[in-house]
Amino acid sequence: MNAIIGIVVLMVCVFGGFIMAGGSMKPIIKAAPVETFIILGAGIGGMLIGNSMDIFKGALGGMGKVFKGPAYKKEDYLSTIFVVSKIMKTLKTEGPVALEAHIENPESSAIFAEYPKILHDHALLDLVCNTVRLMVVSTSPLSPYAVEDVMDLSIKTHHHDALKAQTALATLAGALPALGIVACVLGVVKTMDAIDQPPAVLGAMIGGALVGTFLGVFMAYGFVEPMASRLAQIIDDEGQIYKVVKQIIIGTLHGHPMPLIIEAARAGISHHNQPSFAEVFDGLRGG
Fold first, then answer.
1. How far is CA 38 from the centre of its chain?
2. Number of C-beta neighbours around residue 42 at 10 A
3. For 127, what's the count of Cα atoms within 13 Å in the CB-facing half-sphere?
4. Is the Cβ–Cβ distance between 253 and 142 less than 8 Å?
5. How far apart are CA 259 and CA 269, in angstroms?
6. Is 72 within 8 Å of 273 (Cβ atoms)?
7. Please, is 45 exposed, middle or buried when counting C-beta atoms within 10 Å of its C-beta (0-12, 13-18, 19+)?
8. How far is CA 67 from CA 1, 6, 190, 226, in A?
9. Would you say residue 14 lies in a domain?
10. How far is CA 93 from the centre of its chain?
11. Stated pTM of the model
12. Neighbouring C-beta atoms of residue 133, cutoff 10 Å
């Protein structure tokens, strides 16, 4: 919603202010389609040159995330706390072997079946299952510090990969003003080729060329750079759920009391998504 409001404010203030100052939208509307085609086409081409197809698609999907917001809400954090807590409780009461069926085939697991959304989140599911799998296959007790190192590496790798799409968008934002100049120069070349035309015609052509510079700067700092900045915030926000998983697993391996472990996991969630103490512990008692 904020993104939509921001776009409306941006458009009204820029073009409304231009019209209020006595400007005419006619030359902008006339030149915008071609200039936009040149600038965005060159920008997309540069993104394809500089990135893999997965990162390119991730950048496009990231722009959609700016409008949808983070993937995880309060309910998702609650579900994650509940499912990982139940897995750790099973580990403590029944031993690692009892978890083998749950982690090898989570789709058929009674624990995961209670929280179906997690089954569709492959990165989150893999972090849980692969970490627990280490405990199942190990022939001796694992050091909590060693498991923590493995989880930190996994979370860091996932976060680094997610940021590649954001970096691609930020690079595009940096390139758009220069590509606007490219479009402007092409317009000037076209104008010089028609130098024998009347001043009114040349003026219109030069104005159309300058629209290219305007659009490059406008799209960069009005749209793409704010989207890249917001996407970085969303990626950081979504990364908190992986730390919740880590907090519960590592705390359990250290032998801390479960209420302390759960509260530490809950306290690490941003306030806008953080479930209350009662919501967490009432839910655990209910489960």
1. 27
2. 18
3. 29
4. yes
5. 16
6. yes
7. exposed
8. 7, 11, 39, 12
9. no
10. 38
11. 0.87
12. 16
Query: CA-CA distance, 287 to 113, in Å (whole number)?
Result: 13
The answer to whether residue 9 sits within a structural domain is: no
How long a stretch of residues is the chain? 287
Residues 6+ apart with CB under 8 A from 242: 123, 124, 127, 155, 158, 159
Task: Determine the distance from the C-alpha atom of residue 27 to the mean position of all C-alpha atoms in its chain, rounded to a whole number.
Answer: 37
Calpha distance 229→237 (Å, rounded): 13
Domain that holds residue 218: 26-287
How far apart CA 133 and CA 143 sit, in angstroms, is 14
Residue 65 contacts residue 104 (beta carbons within 8 Å): no
Amino acid identity for residue 48 in this structure: L
Q: 177: which 2 tokens? A: 């003003």
From CA 244, how far away is CA 147, in angstroms rounded? 15
Q: Is 238 a domain residue? A: yes
Domain count, the chain: 1
Instruction: Split the chain (287 residues) into runs of 10 and give each run's mean pLDDT.
Output: 91 94 90 93 95 95 92 92 90 83 86 86 91 85 91 94 95 96 91 84 86 94 96 94 94 91 91 89 74
Q: In whole angstroms, how far apart are CA 152 and each of 130, 131, 135?
A: 13, 11, 16
Q: Do the domain assignments include residue 51?
A: yes
